Each structure stands twice: as C-alpha cells, then as structure tokens.
Known about the structure:
Shape: elongated
Distance between the termini: 21 Å
Helix content: 25-40%
Mean pLDDT: 84
Oligomer: single chain
Number of strands: 10
CATH topology of the largest domain: Rossmann fold
Number of helices: 10
Radius of gyration: 20 Å
Amino acid sequence: MLANPHTAPAVKTILCPIDFSEQSKFVVEHALRVSEVFNADITVLNVVDDMDAKYAAYRKTEKDLLMLRRTLEQDSQNQMTTQVATKFRNRDTKYGFVTAYGKAIDQIPRFSKEKNVGLIMMATRSAGLTNQFILGSTTYKIVRTAPCPLMIFSRPEQKFRALRILFPTDFSPLSFQALPYAYKFAKEYGSDFHLVHFHQMHGEVFKESAKELETMKRDATRNGVAHVTLNDEIKGVTPGSAILKYAKENNIDLIVISAHGASGYKQFFLGSTAIDITSRSECPVLIVRKSE
C-alpha cells in the first residue's frame, strides 16, 4: 500500500523562523509560493534569546526582565513591519508575526507543536542563525524533535521552482510516508519525478527492487504525477552521498526524504542520513519526519 490518492497532506500553517538575515527573509518569499500549493497561512517567528549574556545587566530583577522582554518584542515587531510585511502586500495569504523568548532550537519545535504547524521552512546557512539551528547536532535535534515536516534551504537566495523532484526509497513504510508531499509538489509544478533506489556497494541486493519501482511508478501515475523517471542503480558508500550525487547530476530542484525520529530503525532513512543530505545539498530538502 503506497499513497492514498484521496489523502493529501494537510498543511494549514507554514512556520518561517527568521532572524532578519537576508537568507531567512528569502525563505519567507519561498513560503509565499509554497503556501499557494497547500492553501496555507504563514506565521513568521522571531526567537529572541533574552537569557543571552549581553542582556545580563537588564534582567537583575523580575521587573527588569519584563521590561527587557517588552523592549525586545517591540524591536522584533518593528523589524517584522519594516523588513517582512512588505513581502505580503497584494497577497491573499493570511499571515502573522510572533516573537518568542529562549533558544530557537527549543522554541521552534515547541511553537510548532502548540500551534499545530504543518510545515517548517528555514534556511541553513545564515550568519545570524549559526549558533541557533544550522548544521550538525542542532539541525539533528530539529529533525528529531519537530512535530511536522521541515523544508530546508541551503541556498535560499536562489529562486525555488520544483521542476525536478527526487524521491529516494528503500521500499520501507517509513520512506512511503513522504510520498503524498512529493506528489503534491509534483502535481503543482508539473515536475519530472525521479524515483530512485539506493544500493549499498557492499551488501545484500534487493532482488525485487526494479519490480517495486514499477509499482511505485503506477502509484505515482494514479496520484496525478505525469512524468516519472525510475533509477534502480544509484550506488555509493553511504545513501547520503549517492542521493546527493544523483541530485547534482540530474539538476534536481527538490529532494523529498523521510526521517525517523529515534535511533535504531533498520532502514537507511535515519536522522543521520537526513542531516548528511541537508547539510550538503545544493537544492532544498523536504524532510518528513516520522512522529513517535
């Protein structure tokens, strides 16, 4: 059983974390386009670390802390108005600006869960975000703790058009959970849809892989995807390197991949593979994380 053609992913709200760097503001522009795909609202979230050492002199008492937070929120909202609100002019998309306090790595998953966010969109290479949620263990934690899919842009300044979508699979139920999202983008953009299977260079070969890919192709066609390419021969030392090599060689615009939220899953769609792909991909990556 693959994707149900009558079950489209329900994304009612898109969350865009922002630190007012150019990279994070570009993601807001991408979110406007993606919001049209899902008919979703957008929430722009600025997380302010009011416990940062630079604010120590302003939080000696509880009253000082409240005053500090009011000042920081006013500054945050002013920047939202001057730097972000203009992007929503002449648009029908509903949106809101929110300021939260704490560490972005904690507040993004918390806010997403409390507000039932359907998709998080964020940049990965931004000077302002470096100590918040860029790469390595911090991104790994976001992948593991976010209660919804994440769409991550390593080069947000580039225009986003998902004309070529890559969907890697090991034929596990885990990998199939991301199919409805891949189908949604493929139908919206009329994409060339690449279904690929990873082979370990040294390991047991799945003999039915070509047959399984044909089954997936029929499923994609039933779900309205018109242009499907199959490849049963992508190989590499690691799944991440093989997927990234294929994406580069085929000018892929979007990689859609599943990730498990805890260690111990036997297939290769682990958090570590998602991090490997996210940290090195030249195109956006949509990670659909399995909830616990």
